[in-house]
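Today's session is about reading a structure prediction critically. Students often jump straight to the picture, but the first step is always the sequence itself: look for stretches that repeat, for charged clusters, for runs of hydrophobic residues. Only then move on to the predicted structure, which in these notes is written as discrete structure tokens rather than atom positions. Here is the chain we will use throughout the hour.
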Amino acid sequence: MFKQFKAIFGAVALLTLLASCQTANKDAREQAKESLTAAPAQPMPQQPTDPSATSVQPSVPTGPTTSMEFKEMAFDFGTVQEGEKVSHTYKFTNTGKEPLIISDAKGSCGCTVPNYSKDPIAPGKTGEIVVEFNTQGKAGQRNQKVTVTANTNPPQTFLELKGTVAGAAGATTPQPNVQVNQ
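Below is the predicted structure for this chain, in token form.
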């Protein structure tokens, strides 16, 4: 008899627990449904079209957008010796009707460093971004990228610095370390 009482009590406790879980789930579902219908839809952020861009995107300045036009988007520095620093100035014009605000400029690696003015550039005025590439340890064909983020549409513009870095004089090409186990 005690076993029957124990089984009945356990079944009642289990049913009570299941019923309370279903009520809690229903409340959570109702709250989620209400929050979806009450909040307006937000547009998805625009992703950059360049696959080499990093996954963390800098914030884009808010406010009206403008446009910028570079005199050149790519610069070929030719062939330089490893260890040299290559520098190039990319000149641009604010071709829009609003002040141009560059919020960020990042190189594709730590060896490529862009410098730019943090001040707004008035419509019709020019500006420049100076990019320096340190070739130390970077022998071979190079294609360095700089991502410029501004209040433009699209917000990211990609600049290229490319060329060949010749190995340091007297340097030998390291031989691969191959070990054969028999």
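Discussion point for the tutorial: The first strand starts at residue 68 and ends at 70.
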